[in-house]
Amino acid sequence: MKSLGSIRRSFAPWNDPQARPYISFQNVTKRFGDFTAVNDLSLDIYEREFFALLGASGCGKSTLLRMLAGFETPTSGRILLDGQDLAGIPPYKRPVNMMFQSYALFPHMTVEANIAFGLKQDGMPKAQIAERVAEMLKLVRLEQFAKRKPHQLSGGQRQRVALARSVAKRPKVLLLDEPLGALDKKLREATQFELMDLQQDLGLTFVVVTHDQEEAMTMADRIAIMDKGKVMQVATPAEIYEAPSSRFVADFVGSVNMLEGTVTSRNGNSVVIKGNSGAQISVENAGDAAPGADVAFAIRPEKIRVTSKRPETAANAMEGEVWDIAYLGDMTVYHIKLGDGQVVKASALNSARVSEDPLTWSDRAWISFAPDAGVVLTR
Amino acid sequence: MQGKLSRFNITALVLGFAFLYLPIVLLVIYSFNDSKLVTVWGGFSTRWYASLLSNHLLLDAAWVTARVAFISATVATVLGTLAALALVRYTRFRGRFLFSGMVFAPLVMPEVITGLSLLLLFVAVGLDRGFLTIVLAHITFTMCFVAVVVQSRLMSFDRSLEEAAMDLGATPFRTFIHVTLPVILPAVVSGWMLAFTLSLDDLVIASFTSGPGATTLPMRIYSQVRLGVTPEINAVCTLLIGVVTIGVLAAAIVNKRRDIQRQRDEQAAAQAN
User: Fold this and answer.
1) B253 — alpha (psi -120 to 50), left (phi > 0) or beta?
2) Is the Cβ–Cβ distance between B265 and A110 less than 8 Å?
3) In this predicted model, what pLDDT tens digit does every residue of B120-172 receive, in sequence order?
4) Once rounded to an integer, what is the mean pLDDT over residues A85-108?
5) Searching chain A, which residue's CA lies closest to the CA of residue B171?
6) Interface touch B182/A108, C-beta < 8 Å
């Protein structure tokens, strides 16, 4: 497979067969009565990784995090941290700290006392505590708020206090449960980068739970997409987006067009798919699709070109009618209705202010794409 | 519509307050009556307050009442808080519903029955009736009030606070002392005050469970009234009303101030954002 997107650094221990996972979930199942929150799940996370658990609410991602913190015990299976089985170790003896979704700041304590709380439990000498607290306050830029109580702070400040408190003990692993969920959009974007810098500077392993795919894509080294207590795919953001392993993942992350069809022939790594609409689609990097298999060809809207005439060189082209146009400023999304009634989304970047060849409602239009523009999904 | 006082509203208000407070106002006025006859006004005087100071029977009874109330409220607060914790926290044990019902039964149990059953128990186990038995009885019947007050606070308690404390390395015991208790403290304190007041003005249960040498103030007042109401009793009652009023007002003022301060802080924080 060709390389997919550039990763922000060459950090990729998951590709190294010698690397030992730092956190390891082994066949973990968690049931609450009749409800199975986590279902026979195995997952490896490496040291210094920024790992995101992404899924809709109720998919089991928070339960996974709480089992790692020690607030829930697995019904079966093992969780290893740095080679040590965590079974039977209570939360207050685990070398992991958690940042709670509600922040869970102690309302009767000042900012200072909140940050010092964990250090006091370890019996750290007073002078050292004061030093560490000052360092943490500086890190989150809250020096002048040290004596305030949580209710005297704004939402963004509370979030930073919670962060400072959870990293004050220098845990091996920091667990973040929807860390930016309670912030408004602008603050959230700024804080994403702060979190990434912090993780790099302190050299910690971060495991973050989120339902916001943009957040996961921005921050994480790798993302695990979860559904119904199972991991659907674990991969880098670029791989998740460009090479989803199943219809669920393709559909869950970003916007996608799914063209269902049957594989008619296979030649090396290339296949020809006869779409349900009758159109032929030729695709490279076909994965494990065998002739005769029912597959979906998944292609992102920005990989599709829309033109008013049939392009001469395109490997794949289909004719349709402009059904809808959504002008978003930076781009325009065309909804093209194909012969069989399926509507395909195609987005075009508005790189020029005025279009030479404007398409409008009910025009005949052609969509075209390269053979490697999408992926073939068998699951 | 709202906020306007119609003639009907004013009448209702006056009648309602009169119904509630007229007897008390009369009692207070007559405590300053110079005449020995309770119902005949003989001019203003504070002599009954002075004579109160030399009435050892009443003073002793007041001292007994204060000690009973203090000890029983304190013990009841500890037990009631623990009961509330158990009922709110361990939601899945067998028979929880029955237990929570049983904790609250004494709230609606006629005092006569509570008193009588305790008397029978003390007699059965051979406990001499006196100071100790009153304290025990008061613990029993005030504990459930404390449990109710603390339980309602615990319902809205954010469990993630405790999880955060444990996550940061605090053992369950330290978590309780440093996080849970400080957060629910206002409810615990008001539970204590409720227990204290209940014990202070209990007559029925104390009558059943007291013995010679341990007479509480309500019992003393009641027995004196049977011999005839003296202005002295009016004076004692006025003092009691005074103490209770000051307590209630103080609590209200402190609460109000804290609310105002909190609102101001939150506004300031929101603006700084």
Assistant:
1) alpha
2) no
3) 999 999 888 889 999 999 998 899 899 988 988 888 888 899 999 999 999 99
4) 90
5) A92
6) yes
How many Cβ atoms sit within 10 Å of the Cβ of residue A254?
16
Instruction: Among A91, A102, A157, select the one facing B158 at the smallest CB separation.
Output: A102
pLDDT surpasses 70 at A356: no
Which residues contact residue A183 at a Cβ distance below 8 angstroms, ignoring those fewer than 6 apart?
A155, A156, A159, A191
Q: Where are the domains of chain B?
A: 56-272
Nearest to A97 among B168, B174, B262 (CB): B168
Inter-chain touch A155–B273, beta carbons under 8 Å: yes
Class of domain B56-272: mainly alpha
* Dist. CA B28–CA B45, nearest whole Å: 12
Give the one of A100, A117, A152 whose C-beta lies nearest to B160's C-beta. A100
Cβ-based contacts of A93 with chain B (< 8 Å): 169
Whether residue A64 contacts residue A79, with contact meaning beta carbons closer than 8 Å, is answered with no
Distance from CA of A79 to the nearest CA of B (A): 17
How distant is the Cα of A187 from the closest Cα of chain B, in angstroms?
Answer: 10
Provide ipTM, 2 decimals.
0.80
SS3 for A84? strand
What lies within 8 Å, CB to CB, of A155 at 6+ separation is A182, A183, A184, A187, B273
Q: What are phi and psi of A171, to 5 degrees?
A: -70, 160
